[in-house]
Amino acid sequence: MDTAPTADVRTQGRELALKLLYALDVTRPETPEGELNSVLEVEAAPAAVADFARVLVQGVNEHLAELDKAIQDAAVNWQVSRMPFVDRAVLRMGAFELLHLFDVPPKVSINEAVELAKKYSTEKSGSFVNGVLDKVFQTHCPQKV
User: Fold this and answer.
1) Does residue 103 fall inside a structural domain?
2) How many independent structural domains does the chain possess?
3) Lower CB count within 10 Å: N or C terminus of the chain?
4) 2 lies in some domain
5) How many CB atoms lie within 10 A of CB 81?
C-alpha cells in the first residue's frame, strides 16, 4: 500500500502551509508550535493535508537560516528581509522542498510555488518566484538534476 500523499493533498497542504508561514512571519509568536496548532484547528483541514502542511512549516522553521541564504544567493538585488511576506513564505517553502523533500520532483515544487505566488501575491511574483527557485535548484540541488 502506498502511503505517499496524493498531488491534490500536497497542493492543499502547500496552500495551508503558506497561510501558516505567512501568519508566523507577520506575528512572530513566542510559541510558533502553539500558533501552528491554533491555525490548523481553525482551518479544519483533512488530516493528510494538515500533516503535509505541518511538515512544510516545521521544515521551513528548522532550516530557516539555510533557506534564506539560498534564496538570498539566488535573488540578485533583493534582500530576503525586504521581500513581501507572501513571496518570502512561498520562496522559503519552495526552497525547503527543493533542498529537503527528495520525493517531490523539482519541477513540481517550483510550479506549485509559482501558482501560489500568482494566486496570493501579484502576477509578477510568479515569474520572480520561478526565477529565484530555478536558480536555487540549479546551484544547490545537483543530486536532483
Assistant:
1) yes
2) 1
3) N
4) no
5) 8
Residue 24 forms part of a structural domain: yes
C-alpha 22/C-alpha 40 separation (Å) is 13
Q: Which three cell numbers stand for residue 8?
A: 491534490
- Residue whose grid cell is 539555510: 66
CA neighbours closer than 13 Å in the CB half-sphere of residue 76: 3
- Considering the entire predicted model, what is its pTM? 0.89
The one-digit pLDDT tens for each residue of the chain (145 residues) are 345 567 799 999 999 999 999 988 888 766 667 777 777 778 788 889 999 999 999 999 999 999 999 999 999 889 998 999 999 999 999 999 999 998 889 999 999 999 999 999 987 999 999 999 999 999 987 665 4
Burial environment of residue 60 by CB neighbours within 10 A (0 to 12, 13 to 18, 19 or more): buried
CA–CA dist 95, 137 (Å, integer): 8
Residue-range definition of the domain harbouring residue 138: 7-144
Q: At what angle do helices 106-120 and 7-27 cross, to 10 degrees?
A: 60
